[in-house]
Write a structure and sequence with these properties.
This protein is of the alpha+beta class and 81 residues long. The protein is 33% helix and 20% strand. It contains three helices and two strands. Strands 1-2 form a two-stranded antiparallel sheet. A hairpin with a 5-residue loop joins β1 and β2. α1 crosses α2. It is elongated and about 45 Å long. The relative contact order is 0.27.
Length: 81
């Protein structure tokens, strides 16, 4: 399995975040749901936790947490992209 581009970036961010996970607010990226969808299609287990937020645009957002164990992440990432 090789992950490239923004999907690779998202996988690295999820790995680095550990059990805290990533949200579009804490790790800005244009298409988190799209990255997670593609990574899941590759067989990675990523949990979606729905959280509420307040403020002028109150509502819900997703927190994504990588649940797959990663042994050698360097082998999955294509550094040329």
């Amino acid at each position: 399995m090789t992950v490239i581009g923004r999907d690779a970036w998202a996988l690295l961010e999820l790995h680095r975040a550990g059990d805290c996970g990533c949200t579009p607010l804490t790790h800005p990226g244009p298409r988190w749901s799209g990255y997670v969808h593609k990574l899941r299609k590759l067989g990675l287990r990523i949990e979606t936790v729905t959280e509420s937020h307040d403020g002028p645009f109150a509502g819900h957002h997703a927190r994504y947490v990588l649940r797959s164990r990663m042994r050698d992440l360097r082998r999955l990432i294509d550094a040329d992209d």
